[in-house]
Design brief:
292 residues; alpha/beta; 10 helices; 34% helix; 16% strand; globular
């Protein structure tokens, strides 16, 4: 299978992330660029973000947060230009070491075979040329990010394998049984050197950085793992407007909101990826490298 290199209207893209808003902090500009170019983009969100923080109690309660965040993601993707949004419906697993990790409804506790099977069926249904997901670090080690990374990578490989067949009794669709080599797998990454620079800028501006309890040198992806850089400066306004839809998560007094506007736009103007696995196409292909 050849990946389209010229006409992006022929490109099908599957982006799969753990929580509502992960897409905005990750490849939001790239998704907007692809959608504007006519590519068919599907966004899969593994959890409902049930245990995220609530920026304003008027927006949600712990009991309604998952439903609220689902709608926020739909609203955000309407801004980005992505009409096909799907939820796997798992409960947010919370940060590493919390009781939420042990909730039987959480993604962290879900059967790997079940999650991979659902993703394979989606891939075989929409037949993407490009799949985008979290990098191995999950950015900052969130259990759901790391889990989605593993499950999407496994599904990417299984999708094109004729020997893989669905076992679920609900998998009656013919498309679920037809192998589809999905082309290119990209991991969204944020170079560690960039994160350290942003962290220092926050400190210099008297802002308490996020993830203050984590070691800054371990947040993000090793710089050498970046293979692909995308200039999304023309889509920064769309990216900002899309992220703003995640109102329950956007603390107006949070560290990112306090950054100088020029620095925020600079940070958001470039997105980084690792081209992880080419499948069924020229190993030299890198469709995202040609975007602008």
């Amino acid at each position: 299978m050849a990946v389209p290199t010229q006409n992006l209207e022929n490109l099908k893209v599957l982006a799969a992330f753990a929580h509502p808003d992960d897409e905005g902090f990750g490849p939001g500009g790239t998704l907007a660029l692809l959608a504007a170019a006519g590519s068919a983009v599907t966004l899969v969100c593994a959890t409902n973000g049930d245990v995220g923080e609530i920026s304003d109690p008027a927006l949600a309660t712990p009991e309604t947060l998952g439903q609220v965040r689902q709608q926020e993601l739909r609203d955000a993707m309407a801004v980005t230009g992505v009409p096909d949004v799907r939820f796997l419906g798992y409960r947010d697993s919370g940060m590493q070491g919390t009781d939420d990790n042990n909730n039987p409804s959480s993604l962290y506790q879900a059967s790997p075979e079940e999650v991979v099977g659902t993703l394979v069926e989606i891939m075989r249904e929409i037949r993407p040329n490009v799949v985008i997901t979290h990098d191995p670090s999950g950015g900052y080690g969130h259990p759901d990010h790391v889990t989605v990374h593993h499950r999407v990578t496994q599904a990417f490989q299984a999708s094109g394998d004729p020997a893989w067949q669905p076992t679920s009794p609900d998998s009656s669709r013919a498309s679920a049984r037809q192998p589809w080599p999905t082309g290119l797998l990209y991991y969204v990454c944020y170079p560690r050197s960039n994160f350290r620079r942003m962290w220092q800028q926050m400190v210099n501006n008297g802002i308490t950085p996020p993830f203050a309890s984590l070691e800054v040198d371990k947040i993000g992806s090793p710089d050498e793992e970046v293979t692909t850089t995308v200039d999304v400066s023309n889509y920064v306004e769309t990216k900002i407007a899309s992220l703003a839809c995640h109102r329950s998560q956007m603390d107006p007094n949070g560290p990112f909101a306090q950054l100088p506007e020029a620095l925020t736009r600079e940070i958001m103007s470039t997105e980084y990826f690792t081209l992880a696995l080419p499948q069924g196409c020229d190993t030299g292909s890198d469709i995202l490298a040609g975007l602008a």
